[in-house]
Specification:
Strand content: 15-25%
Bound molecules: 1-deoxynojirimycin
Distance between the termini: 22 Å
Radius of gyration: 23 Å
Number of strands: 21
């Protein structure tokens, strides 16, 4: 069977490899321990060398940084810790000069409690138009002492906080699906919709190529805000991350009961509206949904032709290292998105999940990790993890569609598990009283040069999260031009992917190589991933990429090769 994405158009985003920059951990030009925009500008050449088509920057906007910038206090300015708007312009110009597109992060579900809109809502008082910009409600119980419903924050604890009136008496409650410093905006309000059209235009006018849309499944809540108790999911980020509370386990085929705060039909008219805003601009601008929605057939609604262009495929990210599961999710992904004419996307790591060089070696008792620390069950083996990560990436980059790479994965970085408790900063850690480690372990500043302060992240060695002492071998300069290094594996895969146009290609399964093998042809390239632990005989062909050492004509377990048709 051939699963094709051809004939759907050739816009850049259908096949792009998009590199996620987490600004605070990428490169720090000031030496204060937090990465910044000039730091990014100074390192863009290395991304050209890597071979990516676009970068997506996590938020660098004005923010008290209670959730690492996903608590925005001004959507149209740069936080001083990251630089200035002029620094953004300079960074974007350099990227564009290098032929790299720029996607910024839009956070519409909630603002910071320090945003002037929220401060005005507090000051204006109950029943005012300003209060209607957020989700204020009266409490339950005789004195309104109980929250309006039983919803829980994704980060832990109740999703409601009560405000105090100027006279000191307790007042209304406001909804925050994430931290209490992140009040949810009221997307039933036309005023809110108008503000965000302006935000889109502000950045489009500045020349950005698109937006990654945070919590794109959460903007509309069910009428009446009914109580809801999510089922135990037992896996994934378990609520430590981006809002996948209450989802079915990965690769479920049926729709789970939809929580009243996720995936409500009303979100789609918002994205249809934004689609028309983007269409006012030249140059194939894009919207990419961060929507933890399953099954994939439902997620495909976010990328109908008049809505967004892409949606992150978190079902793929959460798929276990199993040939059966991988084949199934690839099939379902391509066919689900094809029904609406959209490409599938592929992703293995980001700033919310355990890095895949560690996650893929977690044991069954703790399959997704939900943030791992020294006391977590099922500690991963570093060698096994890296081996699988290299094989998994080599499989992913052979697939048709668009792929996302998270900074540092091209270096083979593992999760930092042994961060001292005192250094942890994720609100998940605080809101669960240390029960969940959260996401700091995948956010540690990345290493550029071995044997230098901060591994070249800056020149002072300061780092907002401590870097491990054994990262010299992961540093970029330890790997550049070194045959067999993870960086060279990524560079080779990206160069071949581009040369053979794999992103716009078609997938044809090869089924006769055994049950532990995922194999397919995509144009001139044949991808063979041995997901098991027993070596298999390699078919005849010219090996142009190998994720690990080959033993003659046999392909060891946890290894992927690409063969070029003769
Ligand atoms: C998803 C983002 O990726 C995550 O980092 C953030 O904490 C939540 N959304 C809330 O904005």
């Amino acid at each position: 069977m051939t699963l094709t994405m051809t004939g759907l158009g050739s816009e850049w985003w259908r096949s792009a490899v998009i590199y996620q920059i987490y600004p605070r951990s990428f490169a720090d030009s000031t030496g204060d321990g937090i990465g910044d925009l000039p730091g990014i500008t100074g390192r863009l050449d290395s991304l050209k060398t890597l071979g990516v088509d676009a970068i997506w920057l996590s938020p660098f906007f004005t923010s008290p940084q209670k959730d690492a910038g996903y608590d925005v206090a001004d959507y149209c300015d740069v936080d001083p810790i990251f630089g200035t708007l002029a620094d953004f312009d300079a960074m974007q110009k350099k990227a564009h000069d290098l032929g790299i597109r720029v996607i910024v992060d839009l956070v519409p579900n909630h603002s910071s409690d320090q945003h002037v809109w929220f401060q005005e809502a507090l000051a204006a008082g109950e029943g005012s138009p300003e209060r209607d910009h957020y989700m204020f409600r009266e409490g339950k119980g005789p004195n309104g002492d109980l929250p309006p419903n039983n919803w829980e924050s994704v980060f832990g604890g109740p999703a409601w906080t009560r405000v105090t009136r100027p006279d000191g008496t307790p007042g209304q409650w406001y909804l925050h699906l994430f931290d209490s410093s992140q009040p949810d905006l009221n997307w039933q309000s036309e005023w809110v919709r108008a503000q965000f059209r302006d935000v889109l235009r502000f950045w489009l006018d500045r020349g950005v190529d698109g937006f990654r849309v945070d919590v794109a499944h959460g903007l509309i809540k069910a009428d009446g805000l009914p109580d809801y108790t999510p089922p135990e999911t037992g896996g994934s980020m378990g609520g430590s991350g981006s809002g996948n509370v209450g989802l079915e386990p990965a690769i479920s085929d049926h729709e789970a009961v939809t929580p009243p705060y996720w995936a409500q039909d009303g979100v789609h008219e918002i994205y249809r509206d934004w689609h028309t805003v983007l269409e006012e601009y030249e140059g194939e601008r894009v919207l990419c949904a961060e929507a933890w929605v399953e099954p994939l057939t439902k997620l495909a609604r976010w990328v109908r032709p008049d809505e967004m262009q892409q949606a992150f495929n978190f079902t793929y990210l959460e798929t276990p290292w199993s040939a059966t599961a991988l084949k199934r999710v690839i099939d379902t992904s391509i066919s689900s998105f094809a029904t609406v004419g959209a490409p599938s996307t592929w992703v293995l790591s980001n700033h919310d999940v355990v890095r895949h060089a560690s996650r893929l070696a977690l044991t069954a008792e703790n399959p997704q990790g939900a943030g791992i620390g020294p006391k977590s069950a099922g500690q991963p083996d570093r060698v096994v993890g890296l081996r699988r990560a290299r094989a998994a990436t080599s499989l992913m980059l052979g697939l048709p569609g668009s792929a996302y790479i998270y900074q540092g994965e091209e270096l083979g970085l593992p999760e930092v598990i042994d961060l001292p408790d005192a250094s942890r900063q994720d609100p998940t850690w605080f809101r669960t009283n240390g029960e969940k480690y959260g996401r700091d372990g995948c956010r540690v500043p990345i290493p550029w040069e071995a044997a230098t302060p901060g591994y070249g992240f800056n020149t002072t060695g300061a780092s907002w999260l401590p870097q491990p002492s054994d990262w010299d071998d992961y540093a970029r300069d330890s790997q550049l031009d070194v045959p067999g290094s993870t960086l060279e594996l990524y560079r080779t895969a990206l160069a071949l992917r581009s040369a053979h146009d794999l992103g716009l290609g078609a997938l044809e399964w090869i089924t006769d190589l055994g049950p532990a093998v995922v194999a397919f042809r995509n144009g001139a390239i044949t991808v063979i991933a041995n997901v098991g632990d027993v070596a298999i005989e390699l078919p005849v062909g010219q090996v142009v990429l190998a994720s690990g050492e080959l033993d003659g004509a046999s392909l060891p377990g946890d290894t992927t090769v690409w063969l070029l048709a003769q």
